[in-house]
Amino acid sequence: MCTMIVENAEISGSGKGTQGWFPLRQVSVSYDHPFNAPLDHALNIDFVNEAEGLSARVAVELTPDSARQLVKTILAALDHGEGNPELAGMAQAAAG
């Protein structure tokens, strides 16, 4: 059964697809049937730039446990990086 659960957001970053690197503009996160992973349901993440066509897409399908671990790992890396005074000084110098 399809859940039809999807959340979308505008983002800024870069992704690497079949044609090389491209700017990311949107992300869609759904909890539904995956296309490839052998799971009934997965957390599906699609990083896209619709303006650049179908080749400007990076897709990820994760088990729910893996998705939760990814969230924790992302937050830990951000906390570590943003809480590091040495890195904060480098970012200010680059911006200034």
Describe this structure in words.
The chain is globular. With 96 residues, it is α+β, with helices and mostly antiparallel strands. Strand 1 (5-17) and strand 2 (20-32) form a beta hairpin. The chain has a 4-stranded antiparallel sheet. It has 2 domains: 1-62, no CATH class; 64-96. The longest helix has 19 residues, at 64-82. It has helices at residues 64-82, 85-95; strands at 5-17, 20-32, 42-48, 57-62. It starts with a strand and ends with a helix. 31% of the residues lie in helices and 41% in strands. It contains 2 helices and 4 strands, in the order ββββαα. The model has no long low-confidence stretch (mean pLDDT 90).
Task: Describe the protein's topology.
Elements (H helix, E strand, L loop, with lengths): L4 E13 L2 E13 L9 E7 L8 E6 L1 H19 L2 H11 L1
Antiparallel strand pairs: 1-2, 2-3, 3-4
Uncertain segments are none
What number of domains?
2
Strand order of the biggest β-sheet = 1-2-3-4
Q: How does the major sheet shape up?
A: 4 strands, antiparallel
Distance between the termini: 53 Å
Work out the helicity level: 25-40%
What is the number of E strands?
Answer: 4
Rough shape? globular
| Radius of gyration computed on alpha carbons | 16 Å
Mean pLDDT: 90
- Number of helical regions: 2
Helix vs. strand class: alpha+beta
Which key features would you list for this structure?
96 residues, alpha+beta, 2 domains, 4-stranded antiparallel sheet
Please give a quick description of this structure.
The protein contains 2 helices and 4 strands; from the N terminus they run ββββαα. It is of the alpha+beta class and 96 residues long.
